[in-house]
């Protein structure tokens, strides 16, 4: 048993080294170019992670169909972090050290993203373009210079969501909404921003009830929230808990004036709660303004998966992978620092506008190769990394009609910036 | 090749940190039979103590104390030991499976506190910017220097615990484990011995957590989920409880399986099937543990029999 | 408000009570804390779901309830499948360990490993999205005192009472129940009286597996089915069993109700974010003040 055990461990190690050797052999033309991805495929975030991983893979396929980067196809090397930061850091170290990836995309959990930035990517000078980590901690680390400028994200910070929630609620005349929010960094940061935003737009939160993830039942929280007697419910919850909370809220006679978070923007949620209870519901999500770039992504997604790209992180992960690929094309060498700088260059405001999809990416790769400036307008619409690597983006309000998700209103980038100013963020 | 070396340095560092916690658990369970199902709680206390003492000032939570690394590591152990003492005083008279339940609950409660005591722990956002020793060195040298620190700490804990369990006190401790009544009849203060072992065993767990915080530079409640307790236990059982060298070996083997199996999944499973790959990985680890318990209950390295050479003939005669 | 919290506490407590009985039987007869027990609830809930999916739903909703008559059949499937899984886990894992004379702590750890396996097998087959027997949402009925409950929940309460009566009869009026109680009291003595302890153990697994399936199905009916649902209920279940006193079935029931009540009433004094810590605080208080539990011997 002991020897068999050792053998198993040794052969696993051998496999790892073999992978490395194979890569070293192919190093001369350095084809294919590797792109690291860390996404939770199992564990509590597995349900949202899986479609995110598929979409990242779709982005890579688009880039490859468009001719690849520097004439090479891209190969996405995906690791599952299972939602455990230790494994996320291990995955990042492996991707950076052994697979020698020049950049990492994905990374859903804020706790995992912060651990990886803190322990791996900054010191290794490898840019990480997160699709989904919204924590304000990373903005602060950037401001303090502790990310070396190697951290980027294509998802707007929680403030964009807060504004969208406030607009969706006050547009509908809700003056005293109750908030039920997930008790983690994302939920509590969002709540603080939301209080400020709703106050500015002429409402006042009647009360906020935190809930912890993975409780067997949320009846107590729902009852607490009902007792606050608000005129609407703003629900900031992850998909599984969100369905339970919404069902219990409606069962117990809570108002159907719901404002739902982007994590609940899915057909699964609608079928779990029942479309007939959601006729008055509104929801929010980042970006996806209407426009050629968004349509191009949506069409590409539908062609591949035969459904509409609805769900958290899909648009942002596509953009994180494509913008990284374009930056690789732009950078003189496939070195982390060069890619870091190139990530901003492919968003040149004076550049040629380029969009998602095989055609769009092909045009942009060629333009970059020809030495022309480009501005990537992505699946999430136009976005620009600010000095902290954050993006402020447009947002949208959605609703449910005949059991389908439809866009109700778009808060474009200009309106968003104006609202930020008015709220005083 | 440098890359693989760098990854191996990282891997050995993390495994060493786990091994330190496993050694602590070995004193509690392997040598004194106390089922601590809340290992992760003690690691969290060590990590948060270290973080609070070294993280820069922030308006959201305490910080700016700027303790030197060594002092903060010692303090992390001391605070963990104190908390263990408080917990031990409450739970020392519990029958063993009740102790498992109590410590399991304590770890859950500690996680809730980490999530909710924003002023100390930063809540869900965690504490970032924790002082890393050797942070000024270039990455590979940082890795090597930290490996030296981690391996040094592991060696120190190993040697101290080995000394302890070979001492007369250690022999008495095993006697308590085997037969409390007989040990009590021989005049041993059973409760006191168990409590001491519990507290001494908790200190390395705190050290492990603190070193982890120092290594990563960031802690959050998501670092200390129940699955980590399970991993530490797996390390002890696979390595062989009651044997300190086994505990260290088990830590390396189990962590290798846990992280390398992810790598193998990357290498051989097509991207499309990797969600299933993750679940299969967890199933295999569960099966391995159960199989280990059934087919090789003493682990890779079972407990060595410690008996005085003077007694050995005696024992042979008696058998 | 308080009346609502009390009612909610009793309704949550009923499901916890059912699960806690399985745990307390395990502690008394199998003599170890089965950390994998809660996974049997998950297995039972999902086994019933499989039947519902195969049939294409639960049938037309019955009266005020959210589900149709087929759920009874699905429940029966769940009971049988879970009892089989429980017995199989004993045959494959726990019996070999028992034969070798492994201590209770090895058994606990084996149960941890088994829990990991069962949970991920469910995840592998059914995925991570929450599932429901019926997607119908029922509207709560308003009872006097401004208390809102759902018809399903009242039915859950009634089924729990029925199950308890059946269990009481089983343990007190059948040979099998007698054997189980005898082994719980004193295994060597039972053996001396020609009771086969292995037989009693087998029945314990069957009974506790069936109870787990019932609890899991009722939980799925009133909340939702998720692969982690059992794991999330572990702490409340053990608290209820310990609070009631090991081996005491009325104790487990009262323990379950108390845990449900305490969790729900805690929000009067604590923020909801600490709610999940409450069962643990009760357990610790119980260990300190009355380590044998309310009804322990």
Automatic annotation (TrEMBL), chain A:
Pfam families: Peripla_BP_6. Transmembrane segments: none annotated. It comes from the Bacteria. One of its GO terms (biological process) is amino acid transport. Residues 1-24 form the signal peptide. Keywords: Amino-acid transport, Signal, Transport. Residues 32-348 form the Leucine-binding protein domain. Belongs to the leucine-binding protein family. This is ABC transporter substrate-binding protein. It comes from Vineibacter terrae. The lineage of its organism: Bacteria, Pseudomonadati, Pseudomonadota, Alphaproteobacteria, Hyphomicrobiales.
TrEMBL record, chain B:
GO terms for molecular function: branched-chain amino acid transmembrane transporter activity. The keyword Transport does not apply. It is a multi-pass membrane protein. It holds the Pfam family BPD_transp_2. GO terms for cellular component: plasma membrane. The chain crosses the membrane at residues 6-25, 37-57, 69-91, 98-115, 140-161, 195-218, 224-240, 247-269, 275-295. Its main location: membrane. It is found in: Cell membrane. CDD domains: TM_PBP1_LivM_like. Signal peptide: none annotated. InterPro entries: ABC_transp_permease, LivM-like. It comes from Vineibacter terrae. The keyword Lyase does not apply. Keywords: Cell membrane, Membrane, Transmembrane, Transmembrane helix. This is Branched-chain amino acid ABC transporter permease.
TrEMBL record, chain C:
It is a multi-pass membrane protein. GO terms for biological process: D-alanine transmembrane transport; L-alanine transport; L-isoleucine import across plasma membrane. The chain crosses the membrane at residues 6-30, 37-55, 67-93, 105-126, 154-171, 233-259, 265-289. It is found in: Cell membrane. It comes from the Bacteria. Pfam families: BPD_transp_2. GO terms for molecular function: L-isoleucine transmembrane transporter activity; L-leucine transmembrane transporter activity; L-phenylalanine transmembrane transporter activity; L-valine transmembrane transporter activity. The keyword Cell inner membrane applies. Keywords: Amino-acid transport, Cell inner membrane, Cell membrane, Membrane, Transmembrane, Transmembrane helix, Transport. One of its GO terms (cellular component) is plasma membrane. The keyword Oxidoreductase does not apply. Belongs to the binding-protein-dependent transport system permease family. LivHM subfamily. This is Branched-chain amino acid ABC transporter permease. It comes from Vineibacter terrae.
